[in-house]
From TrEMBL:
Gene3D superfamilies: 3.30.300.30, N-terminal domain of ligase-like
Domain AMP-dependent synthetase/ligase: 22-452
Keyword Chloroplast applies: no
UniProt-recorded name of the protein: Long-chain acyl-CoA synthetase
Reactions catalysed according to its record: a long-chain fatty acid + ATP + CoA = a long-chain fatty acyl-CoA + AMP + diphosphate
Listed Pfam families: AMP-binding, AMP-binding_C_3
Keywords from the UniProt entry: ATP-binding, Nucleotide-binding
Species of provenance: Gracilimonas mengyeensis
Top-level taxon: Bacteria
Molecular function (Gene Ontology), one example: ATP binding
One GO location term (cellular component): membrane
Record lineage: Bacteria, Pseudomonadati, Balneolota, Balneolia, Balneolales
Length: 626
């Protein structure tokens, strides 16, 4: 649907939403004061009052147009207030992942030259205090929560958010004209935010996204997918990531959607039935976990339960493919016996699942489609604000990331000769274009201005003709975009065959025994894998079979456990080409995490880190092949 108000900048978006809803008793956000409490609304009047108060405070502290304001916080109401206040006076939002260690926070604060740093909990305040002296431009730190360690709050440059809000309110009357003047000076081509790419290699780079970049993407998304002011969204993906920022925040409020904040990423399954969202924006990891839990439950059930489940999935598949008549009646029975239970876990009201950030395994996509809970898989980059393509309700195609959104042009470039073999603009929606595989390129109003303080990286990313090079390999299939993998992830085996590990890993991740997996085999005669087991599954197997062990290291060393994975790998490899088959593997005792450095804050695997950390295991796999 069209957005509820007209706007060309994020500043105008806030101003016009505030005017429309300020006295209408309309809720903008919902939060939980305590884990045991119910969700409480925050109405637009309070949002408006708080944003103006923080804007007044920022002006009082000397924040000028174009100055950077840092935010290190989980998704919560205060994050939105600081962001909207920053946009209101022409500042630039620099938000950081809460999982970043202090050293990386320091780098981003120094690189961006942030003047004020807002942080959430005591844990995040501790990082800010640790790096403050090394950040010359940083004037003060504002904490949302009172820290348990009192000495952190006693630093002369630390302020509490409630105090800042109160102080800003007192200055509002004398700052109101300046706020109005500043808001009128914000133009579409001004930089609204620096989003630092988490990156699987090298130092983070600050993508400069302008108001026009984000606004054009918001408007295109709302044309492509329908949502309105009767919808509610559960927000849990990091707001410092462009996917949640554009799709789960700006696009939502622009259409009057109410945003419920999850207590944390770990409480999503608990918060879904409480918030009863109609829209869920997520990464594949959530859907993978839901799918694996269901499969485990079925496999542990009786033969009758398994037969009913398999029948329900087959019925759902036939219904999804358009069969009606008797199948319609059978689908109602399948829903009642099987799928309604899954829907209740999500709150029972979800009508739109949107997935991005990584590839969604086709098997999982198909299962949710059979359940009548279609997932709209999309695609984009931080540098494209982020959406380039997404499936539309009723037009989903499994294994693709959908059609190109309005205003955006996507091209496929031959990897060998550099020629563009096909391109589609979002207004075209052709169904007859199929192209060979190549690098995905993008042009449009959503393409970033460049990287902050890094012209060399900007020139590497955007060529002289204005094409942004994504580094991803894909192709068009009857007008739909399909992603193969990252160019940098491509493995070239000893025989010169090009192998993309992503699709292989996605397939194997549907195994109930596998939590995480990385395929290896560069310059080798065969493929192998480093596997993080599903420890809950193998611990249960060990208990049921009387196996003795102490800790994960001993558990994965058991021959009986290794045999499970040998059989599983053999079974899955049947569907792979001979040069793609996994011939060997090693199990590891610890999960890949952001904290230990193996994955990015957006849950992408850092292959180089894993190759270094588990190099001894990889060497052991291939030692007899030399």
């Amino acid at each position: 649907m069209p957005t509820t108000v007209a706007f060309e900048t994020l500043t105008e978006l806030f101003l016009n939403l505030s005017r429309k809803y300020k006295n209408a008793g309309k809720a903008a956000f919902y939060y939980k004061p305590t884990p045991d409490s119910e969700y409480q609304p925050i109405f637009w009047k309070q949002v408006s009052d708080d944003v103006y108060s923080i804007a007044a405070y920022l002006l009082e502290q000397g924040i000028q147009k174009g100055d950077r304001v840092g935010i290190l916080s989980e998704n919560r109401y205060e994050w939105a207030v600081v962001d909207l206040a920053t946009q209101l006076i022409g500042g630039i939002n620099v938000s950081l992942y809460t999982t970043l260690p202090a050293g990386q926070c320091e780098y981003i604060l120094q690189d961006s030259g942030a003047k004020i740093f807002f942080v959430s909990t005591g844990l995040q305040l501790k990082k800010a205090v640790e790096v403050f002296e090394n950040c010359e431009e940083l004037k003060e730190v504002v904490a949302f929560d009172q820290p348990k360690l009192e000495h952190l709050a006693e630093e002369e440059y630390v302020r509490m958010f409630e105090d800042v809000l109160s102080k800003g309110g007192k200055h509002l009357s004398k700052k109101s004209e300046t706020i109005k003047k500043r808001s009128l000076q914000v133009h579409p081509e001004d930089v609204a935010t620096l989003i630092y790419t988490s990156g699987t290699t090298g130092k983070p780079k600050g993508a400069m996204l302008t108001h026009h970049n984000i606004v054009s993407n918001v408007k295109a998304a709302t044309q492509h997918i329908y949502w309105d002011d009767k919808d509610r969204l559960l927000s849990f993906l990091p707001l410092c990531h462009s996917f949640e920022r554009t799709g789960g925040y700006y696009a939502m409020i622009s259409s009057g959607v109410e945003i419920y904040y999850a207590e944390s990423v770990d409480t999503v399954s608990k918060n879904m039935p409480e918030a009863k969202p109609t829209i869920m924006i997520s990464v594949p990891r959530l859907f993978e976990k839901m799918y694996n839990l269901i499969v485990k439950s079925v496999e542990e059930g009786s033969d009758t339960k398994q037969k009913i489940f398999n029948w329900a999935v087959e019925t759902g598949r036939r219904y999804a493919e358009g069969e009606r008549g008797l199948i319609s009646l059978q689908k109602k029975v399948a829903d009642k016996l099987v799928f309604d239970k899954l829907k209740q876990r999500t709150g029972g009201h979800v009508r739109l699942f949107v997935s991005g950030g990584a590839a969604l395994p086709p098997e999982i996509d198909t299962f949710f489609q059979c359940a009548g809970m279609n997932i709209l898989q999309g695609y984009g980059l931080t540098e494209t604000s982020p959406v380039m393509a997404v499936n539309q309700p009723g037009k989903e195609r499994v294994g693709t990331v959908g059609t190109i959104i309005p205003g955006v042009t996507v091209g496929i470039q031959n990897l060998e000769d550099g020629k563009i073999t096909a391109q589609i603009s979002g207004e075209d929606y052709p169904t007859d274009i199929t192209s060979p595989e190549g690098e995905i390129l993008c042009k449009g109003p959503n393409v970033m201005k460049g990287y902050w303080n890094n012209q060399e990286a900007t020139d590497e990313m955007i060529d002289e003709d204005g094409w942004l090079h994504t580094g991803d390999v894909g192709k068009f299939d009857k007008g739909y975009l399909k992603i193969t993998d990252r160019i940098k992830h491509m493995i070239v085996n000893a025989g010169g065959k090009n192998i993309y590990p992503g699709p292989i890993e996605d397939m194997l991740k549907t195994s109930k025994w596998i939590d995480q997996i990385v395929v290896v085999g560069e310059a080798q005669n065969y493929m192998a894998a480093i596997i993080v087991p599903d420890f809950e599954a193998i611990a249960k197997f060990a208990r049921e079979n009387g196996l003795k062990y102490s800790g994960n290291e001993e558990l994965i060393a058991l021959d009986e456990i290794k045999e499970i994975y040998k059989k599983e790998i053999r079974s899955f490899s049947k569907d792979l080409a001979s040069h793609e088959k996994i011939r060997d593997f090693r199990l590891v005792a610890n999960e890949f995490t952001v904290e230990t450095g193996e994955i990015t804050p957006t849950l992408k695997v850092k292959r180089r880190v894993i190759a270094d950390k588990y190099g001894h295991l990889i060497e052991d796999i291939f030692k007899d092949d030399e």
